[in-house]
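Researcher: Let's run the pair from yesterday's discussion. Sequence first, then tokens, for each.
Model: Starting with the first of the pair.
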Amino acid sequence: MLDSTTVPAAAAGTWKLGDLTVNRVGFGAMRLTGTAPFDMGEPSDRERSIRVLRRAVELGVNHIDTAAFYFSSLRSANELINRALAPYPDDLVIVTKVWPGRNASGEWSWATPEQLRGQVEENLRQLGRDHLDVVNLRVPPSRRTGSIAEHFGALAALRDAGLIRHLGVSNVTPGHLAEARSIAPVVCVQNPYGIGAPADDQEFVRTCGEQGIAFVPFFAIAGEGAEAGATGTESDVVLAVARAHGATPAQIRLAWTLQQGPHVLAIPGTSNPDHLADNVAAGALRLSDAELALLSGGH
């Protein structure tokens, strides 16, 4: 049985985002703001969210994924991070993302290249930083086949100006990645990915590894299209492997993801301190080749 209370984030090993070393198990901040951050649902318990962030750092988490558009009616993920963790530990890497935006009513918009600076500065203000460690260009679904050169070029200029240290891309195709890399170095790709991912996604993960680029899946626990969280239903295969390890299905999904390559990171999010410890502990799980194959083919 895995003892989740004693496993540090370093158990899964480390990877480098440019010159920044992070433990492969990180933390996603989206769920800190409440039950439904994207439809202005019930706001979170502020003190509990702050405790979760501080506990994550105590467990060795030094990679936090956030965004200015992660907010509910009373809570902002960036401001919770600032309140809980500033002055920031020297090794803490905060990754944010731009292109999507939301106004105070929660209505969505997509920034023009010229508006990206304002989004970067909004993140800087909320986080209380003078530069951002990593900024991902989050590509809208409508651009799946279009060019991202103008927007990525605008971010590259902000990197040259010293506002951003490293650049990444999110929700992208291999073509987008190649286009971005022709403009400026890319340290990470953040895409939906997990057990049951199609062959093309598996190939993209391998390609990132060959290029030395971190692959950072979102929805690794809940599956694609699962902004609302895990559904509560689980496959028999995942349940069987979980029983064999004395682990939860979510831990098995995270362990499977991490074993897809040393460049694959995890950023599970939660506002529950117990779930946080379980997620971090998943980095210590080692699945057998037979289990990996079973999970890959039997989702």
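Model: Moving on to the second of the pair.
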Amino acid sequence: MADANNIADALVAVALRLAATEGWRALSLVDIAGEAGVSLVDAYTAVPSKSALLAAVLAGVDRRVLAGGPADGDCPRDRLFDVLMRRFDALQESRQAYIAILDDVVFDPLALAPVLPDFARSMAWMLGAAAVPTDGLLGNLRVKVLSALYLSVLRTWRDDDSLDLARTMAALDRGLGRIDEVVGRCPRLAGTPPRRAGASSPPRADASDSEGLNVERPSDA
């Protein structure tokens, strides 16, 4: 049997291509496997359900963002802006497919529910790439706040047909500005300055909070 990760990648590529013209809801795993030239048993092993396929799509976006390494910026706000704009740039690569997914799944709470843990993990990794801690109760709160911000800006991206994503950048900047105001009243919600290379560990959204946070106040992006 072929490597499950390679099979999942092949299925995701075909699913995105088909979703761009046929929509996401209409796709079946059997049809996707057939189009990809993957046997049913291999497809089942790699992505046993439509929600597993969607999780694989989400993971593919994560990998493209994280391939850029840690975010640039002197404060959490700047680094989060960098990471999230990388994410929107990644979505641009298969824009029509991702719009189909948004229309059929992401803006439908019932359809989105099975992949919420995967989405939360994605947001934890985005925070990690921005050197914002995700440990403990505060970390869980940061993940939830970033998730809400990202979904809000995602609606703007969906309708932003500009080449430079100016509307998306403006919406993201406004959203981070609102978080900045909250951080001003509760500075522990901000993150720590970037860790030195090799000193960080993968972000975790469920660990216990063991230490206080030395906060650098975000500057305007």
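Researcher: Give me one sentence on the second I can quote.
Model: The first helix runs from residue 4 to 22.
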